Amino acid sequence: MSGNIIELKNISIAFGGEQILKQLNLSIKDGEFVTLLGPSGCGKTTTLRIIGGFYVPDEGDVLFMEQNINKLPPYKRQINTIFQRYALFPHLNVYDNIAFGLKLKKLPKGEIQSRVTEVLKMVGLQGFENRHIDNLSGGQQQRVAVARAVVNRPRVLLLDEPLSALDLKLRKDMQVELKNIQKSLGITFIFVTHDQEEALTMSDTVVVMNEGIIQQIGTPQDIYNEPENAFVADFIGESNILDGIMKKDLEVEFSGHIFKCLDKGFDKDEAVDVVVRPEDVDIVEPEKGMLTGVVTSVSFLGVHYEIIVDIGGFKWMIQTTDKVENGEAVGLFIEPDAIHIMKKSKYSGLYGDYSSYSDEHDRLSMDAAESEGEIE
Amino acid sequence: MNKKSFGSRLVAAPYYVWAAIFVVVPLIITAYFAFTGKDGSFTLSNMYGISKYGKSFAISILYAVIATAVTLLVSYPMAYFMTKLKISSQRMILLIVMLPMWMNFLIRTYSWITILANTGLINTFLKAIGLGPVQLINTPGAVILGMVYDFIPYMILPIYSVMTKIDHSVLEAAEDLGANGFHRMTKVIFPLSLPGVISGITMVFVPSVSTFYISQKLGGNKNLLIGDAIEFLFNNGPDYYNIASALSLILMVMILLCLTVMNRFDNGEPEGIIV
Fold first, then answer.
1. Most buried among A239, B51, B58, B261, by the most CB within 10 A?
2. How far apart are the C-alpha atoms of A353 and A241, rounded to whole Å?
3. Domain-by-domain residue ranges, chain A?
4. CATH of domain B64-238
5. Shortest CB distance from A75 goes to which of B169, B170, B179?
6. What is the ipTM of this complex?
7. Judging by beta carbons within 10 Å of its beta carbon (0-12, 13-18, 19+), is residue A375 exposed, middle or buried?
8. What is the dihedral sign for C-alpha A31, A32, A38, A44?
């Protein structure tokens, strides 16, 4: 036994001539909370629907407990899905929605009753049995959708952006609740989201996808601290991505200065991408800094200031608790462990500096991504 | 009363007048004739007189029930498969379904005579291959066929329009929860399309039960339907207005009762209807 409940091997699928997934390989361990993370159109929902049985891949194998299930229809899989817009049955009340799967399995009435009562308690909806679906709030509908899926005791639960329709506060609560449900049931969750914060908070393993290809698989800490390439670095959190030259092991040159770092194993003078997270930069007096620059923008975000510093034409984003003024000259001090070196990739140079950065712009593009269609 | 409601009443006034002249007044006249004798005095004798037409009522209801059932059996699968087609094909079929409705109902019924007659299209063909002739025209089957043909669009359209609104993700959810094709049909699609079925049944049953002309042309006047009886009596002159009105009134009450029962199904507890 490999301990993998789901394995995707060389999966490819195309719709209308457009290649959505390209030779995708992914192994998911039993009991893991795995998140497929990526921008709209990256193929994450398609991957989920292949596991659920709603799409049959053009090429490759889908294995469930080492059995090929390529051709097994969804209703025969020990997998349940929570759909993006819940897809509750409008003609049934809460009880009958949740009991739907159990009734199809022809379980005895008493068992159905006790299992429905149990899951209603788990999602905090006791006493809602006879409520009509239309009379529930978004959060309550979400809970019914969760209950309707987990009551069947699936081995794997698929969640297709289940929180995207909820407001921020409710979303945070549901993140914690879903995580707790997953822990107490001990089943595998495969969660799809485009929200990197959500992915980092909830997951044991994050799978970052773009353009139908897996960019990186790792723990949230790995993904954040050691991104594989410029795409991952840019997509997860904020980052300053600079062109650098690896002078030798543990030494890298960028922005005209040689820094000590912790990375090795590169060729001598190899061109690399350098990532420095905004919170890892210390602001010091200009004469004490490794680099010096001029502050061009200051925004107060509560816990810290987000400042933009122009260093030789490259705009850095730095998060600091020190108060600085717009137009002030500052020095930057960067510890060796704050520097992460990545191999050059097709994404190198795509993500520039923060010269055109504005908070509002970021939020707008996020909303646009959310409102895009389901099919990816 | 505030000004706004006065204004909106003023706008609605022409419709009230219209409804009064063409709906309420005829109803009152019908009721008046139904409960008066030839001399204009109050009497219930017309109501007793309708017992002679019991057979007509029974046959009308029987034919209408059969016609409605056949229409439903043909329309439901048709509407279902229409929703599976490309949008452009769906539009094309909708047009074909509605096309006969642009033609006069009498002409449509009349055209069936040329198809079903003993020397008609079908029998000519059957004779040519040595199987005919078969009596088709002037049979109860021909009358029911006429009803089905004339009223089928009123069944297909409401069912189709409700079915197209069923959210596809709900069907995926059912499949995900273990429902095979049969269960998805019986436990999700059918209950969700029920409002369309109910309005289709209403829109076919009501005109079928009260129809006239179809049975005269295709049924050879052998079995007098209640609609034909009413037409026949009114055509026989003022002496028969009272009994004809009584029949109309009874038919109307009957239809109202049917509608009430149907609506109870429609609005009742949704789980009450599920198999």
1. A239
2. 7
3. 4-225, 230-370
4. 1.10.3720.10
5. B179
6. 0.81
7. exposed
8. negative
